[in-house]
Amino acid sequence: MKISARGDYAVRAAVELAAHHPDPVKAKDLATIQDVPHRFLEGILSDLRRTGIVASQRGGQGGYRLTREPNAISLGDVVRAVEGPLVFVRDSRPSDLEYPGSAKPLLEVWVALRAAVRDVLDTTTLADVAGGELPAAVKELSTQSDAWENF
């Protein structure tokens, strides 16, 4: 699985909105705070608005705000809004694939990978990140001895 810049920026903007919830934040301010290109962020916010995660408000006190409480929006919700399904194999959902012969069990590996990614992203909310308190299972995974090493 690879999180693109678009996915990363979307999560960072949503976490920033969670930190300011329920007050709206201007896109330019979000871009500055999170060091994200403003024009790129506008497109991301459009996707988040289209999928119902954020709403925009016009006027001097306007900006973007979350449509739900930060503890009701998972990181998975945000990533799916801008990236689509969390795990794809050759541009297909793992459950849509079939493998012949000795590779047949590989399908279970891809489905398990999708389940593991969901376990992290769907159990971690914007409130968790904005509040600095990640779920215990996520913290535990990040403290494994090889978690920070690239293989």
CATH top level?
A: Mainly Alpha
| Annotated CATH architecture | Orthogonal Bundle
Structurally, how many domains make up the residues? 1
CATH H level, superfamily name: Winged helix-like DNA-binding domain superfamily/Winged helix DNA-binding domain
Radius of gyration: 17 Å
Measured distance between first and last alpha carbons: 14 Å
Keywords: DNA-binding
Pfam families: Rrf2
Protein name: RrF2 family transcriptional regulator
Explain the overall architecture.
The chain is mostly helical and 151 residues long. It has a single domain (5-142), classed as Orthogonal Bundle (Arc Repressor Mutant, subunit A). It contains seven helices and two strands, in the order H-H-H-E-E-H-H-H-H. A hairpin with a 5-residue loop joins strand 1 and strand 2. Helix 1 (5-20) crosses helix 2 (27-34), helix 1 crosses helix 4 and helix 2 (27-34) packs across helix 3. The longest helix is centred in the N-terminal third of the chain and has 16 residues, at 5-20. 26% of the residues are buried.
